[in-house]
Amino acid sequence: MREPTFLIxxxxxxxxxxxxGIVREVTxxxxxxxxxxxxxxxxxxxxxxxxxxxxxxxxETVDGRLRRYYRLTDRGIAxxxxxxxxxxxxxxxxxxxxxxxxxxPA
Length: 106
Hints:
Layout: H1 3-12, E1 17-18, H2 19-29, H3 38-50, E2 54-62, E3 65-72, H4 74-103
Antiparallel strand pairs: 1-3, 2-3
């Protein structure tokens, strides 16, 4: 799973969000390293919906503009959980190797 996809799913793990809310949350989660452009975001949302990982939750109109909210599906929760476990396993392996490197005499 690519990082932007992981971050979008993570942003939705705290509850339904509209597009701009997802963009802000992804920027915050990534400490500013990932900034999604509107075209990229909506292409990803369409793909994630087609894969059954997210779904339309509801719409609201604010200042005459439609906001479409998305949420994770059960399949999306499972995918995020699996990717989190995979990343944790990789992180654990990297940390073990770094500890080994640090413990060697210079």
